[in-house]
Known about the structure:
Layout: H1 2-22, E1 26-27, E2 34-35, E3 54-56, E4 62-64, H2 65-68, E5 72-78, H3 85-99, E6 106-112, H4 120-129, E7 137-140, H5 144-154, E8 175-179, E9 185-190, H6 194-210
Parallel strand pairs: 5-6, 6-7
Antiparallel strand pairs: 1-2, 3-4, 5-8, 8-9
Helix pairs in contact: 3-6
Amino acid sequence: MKYGIIILLTILTACSSSKTNNTLPFYNTPDFTPVWLGPDDAGYNAIHTISPFSLTNQLGETITDKQVKGHIYVANFFFASCGSICPRMMDNLNDVQQAFKNDDAVRMLSHSVTPGRDSVPALFKYAAIHHIDNHKWWLLTGNKDAIYTLARKAYFADDETGYNKTTNEFLHTENVLLIDKHGRIRGVYNGTIKLEMVNLINHIKLLEASGS
Length: 212
């Protein structure tokens, strides 16, 4: 009987491990608790999605949620004058850009948290310095309230500690988010750690393979 229980637990563990290793979770709350759901599961149709937005990129183009609908994309938050975590994070994200440079299905969105200073010309210059492909990787500026609300309420960029903060409280985070074709959060990574970008690249490929 004891051995039967052990065998059963082994099978259940293997099934659970297979599910979590071959699919990515969803993140519905700012504490980034992972949830694995399939189309037949209760709650699948209520998975958190990124809310509509309208911002401006380094080319002066209006970028909305419609431009990334049907695309897998990576999102993060930075500011051009940042001298601490941002340069390292953007350099690491360049690895992601290079990995998918010929893949039109993948986009990258970096939102300025100091949009009053990060004008279109400033972001265009920043893109050139950091070897950013202006047609794949968009540096976004716009209304500060809109960006901060999007960051904290939609992307949970500041974790649960920042979810209820106001726009008067500065947003500074190393979090990088992976968003699927349906606007759902599928991964969160520390952008200052190069190995995390390797995981991100692998997870993008996993999403592509699954059609998510």
